[in-house]
Amino acid sequence: MATTNVETQIAQLQSILQNAPKDPASRQKLYDAVSDMALKLEGSGDTMQRVCYLPLQLSVANIAVDLGLFDILANSTSPLGLDDLQKKTGADQVLLRRVLRYLASVNMVEETGADTFKASNITQTLSRPLIAAGLRHNFNMCAPAFQELPKFLKDTKYQNPYDVMNSPFQRAFQIDEPPFLWVLKHPYHLENANKWMSVQREGSNEWPDAFNFEAECCAGSKITPETPVFVDVGGGIGHQCQLLKDRYPNIQGRVILQDQPPMVAQALPLPGVEKMAHDFWTPEPVKGARAYYMRNILHDYPDEAGAKILRQLVDAMDKDSVILIDEMVLPTTGTHWRAAQLDFTMMSAMAAMERTEQQWKELLDKAGLKIKKVVVYNEQLRDSIIVVVPK
Ligand SMILES: C[S@@+](CC[C@H](N)C(=O)[O-])C[C@H]1O[C@@H](n2cnc3c(N)ncnc32)[C@H](O)[C@@H]1O
């Protein structure tokens, strides 16, 4: 009776899988619900084995990337046996069997018969070059810092880390400079990190999907071609300036990309965007802009340093100016695991943090600023535009 019942339940689950919605948002919702149910169903044996062996998945996935296994299977039109895979990878068959057996056990590849494998949906994802670079980045750079974290926190008496010159990453790599400077001197790690950054929010909304820049920042007094409308402070190579220009091709006024000189020198072509070398620790040279935009800058710094950067902008603002902070705003409860793990990545790498709305208020207060409104544009990570004005 019990067996029949469980077989019926499994059949019901399979029917849910077959009828899973195609649109990404609904699919994500279903995935979150099913994952949550799977964890609630989990017995102690599975819990201990799953948690204790978590690092192994990333390790074996890196072996598969090094051997090109995901690529080979994803590009094959039919299942491949060990002979084929040995010829293509040059690896010993006994070892290959062990690697593939493990990968199949966690659905990273699909086993179609004895010693025969094909790509699964997960193989297809992991074979993509940007995602494979992410496997390398997280294994080579993040995992050593995560490994260091428990001892680091014990040694620092469980105080929240705030000093970028004293982070788990620095200990793991035995360096005495901030990780973002160290990585610039290590091209292999830099390339993997940049590829990972470019893909990790793939498929998510972008800020103009939820925030109407023209209505929010260009209404009111007249804008002329001389009016600075958008200054991207610490804007990297200009992706957000490009996004703004793409979404608002007829926008009047100046759009300005600011960053350190080497970054500005590498910026995208960006027609219609002024490129300006500027150090954000010094007074903001563009006065009275409609919007000073900052994306993923302040989460790198503790409150005092963040307030110092913001004060440079406050001094440049006029009555029509706002600051747009594009960052995660963590909820008070129910933080998604993807957001929570990013917070720990910031802690381990940079002694930095993601913030709740209350924590944003506390930081802004130190710079004489307050929140006008928060527009969430990506629910899962709580990526948001925080519209900020002087108090
Ligand atoms: C995490 S990245 C964010 C880049 C960009 N805003 C984005 O979201 O893609 C931090 C940026 O801050 C820039 N940066 C760091 N220190 C700076 C400084 N003192 N003045 C101006 N930009 C700086 C870096 O060059 C880098 O482009």
How would you describe the overall organization of this protein?
- With 391 residues, the chain is an alpha/beta fold.
- It folds into three domains: 80 residues, Arc Repressor Mutant, subunit A; 70 residues, no CATH class; 184 residues, Rossmann fold (3-Layer(aba) Sandwich), CATH 3.40.50.150.
- Helices cover 50% and strands 15% of the residues.
- It contains 18 helices and eleven strands.
- Strands 4, 5, 6, 7, 8, 9, 10 and 11 form an eight-stranded mixed β-sheet that branches. A three-stranded antiparallel β-sheet has the order 1-3-2.
- Helix 4 runs antiparallel to helix 9.
- It is globular, with a radius of gyration of 24 Å.
- The model has no long low-confidence stretch (mean pLDDT 95).
- S-adenosylmethionine binds next to loops.
